Amino acid sequence: MRISLVIAAAGTVATLTVGVPVSVGAVTRTASTRTAVASQAVSVSGQTTVAAFKSGAIGAIITAYKGPSLTSGVQGTVTNHKNVFGRAVFTVIGEDGDFYKVNLPVRPNGSVGYISKSDVTTFANPYRITISLSAKRLTAYKGSQVIFTTTAAVGKKSSPTPTGSFYTVDLVSPRKKTGAYGPYAIGLSGFSNVYQRFGTGDGRIAIHGTNETKRLGTAVSSGCVRLSNAAITTLATTLPLGTPVTISA
To answer: Of 172, 224, 236, 247, which residue is the catalytic one?
Structure first.
């Protein structure tokens, strides 16, 4: 299933009370079947550099440009939304003068752009996630060490989970913790290759909980990755947003 604004529009988003550091923040598309090829985020000693909004104000906007110049043309914009916890984030690919080159959470999958250094702060993130669609397994790492692995449900044949390099961009907590999305849903920077829209959402894929644990280990979703509620709680309360996610066939 897709989440994105489906949850928000239904009025089911609650304020999070988990201990996710505010400094690592949160957020803030297609009918082809191509794999997203996002640029490799900058890594120092196994850590990804993440850029987060300096302003946590609701509605704050960062403009991404096509090049390292305000006159190079707009590539896209990212907004701090009221329905998510923390601040919008980007994974950093490189830097050029007063700009960071970053991966963007916009369509098409694999989009990159340049953002002003003055708009963001940066931090080092040692975590990453891999998801194997064939094995139906999610694994989380801190550096080279596996810290968590679990069985997942993935997209069915008619609405497959897209493969490629993404990162976590937003975190929401539905008021109904035992519902279809479980206690948490972690939005990714990637979007469905099938759905331009899903419900009232924009087709963004996510990792979330489930109330159908018997279907874990199968290809059953509309493209999102489902975990047990215990597993999604572990991810949501351990890994910061801006965590790289590699999804492979």
So the answer is: 224
The Cα 142–Cα 73 span in angstroms is 37
pTM of the model: 0.83
**Active-site residue 81, yes or no?**
no
Given a cut of 60, is residue 11 above it in pLDDT? no
Could you tell me the residue range of the domain that residue 54 belongs to?
25-125
Catalytic residue among 2, 87, 101, 208, which? 208
The secondary structure element, H or E, covering residue 7 is helix 5-9
68 and 188 share one domain: no
Greater confidence, 31 or 171?
171
Same domain membership, residue 78 and residue 49: yes
What pLDDT, in 10s, does the model give residues 124-163?
999 999 999 999 999 999 999 999 999 999 999 999 999 9
Q: For residue 181, how many other CB atoms are within 10 A of its CB?
A: 26
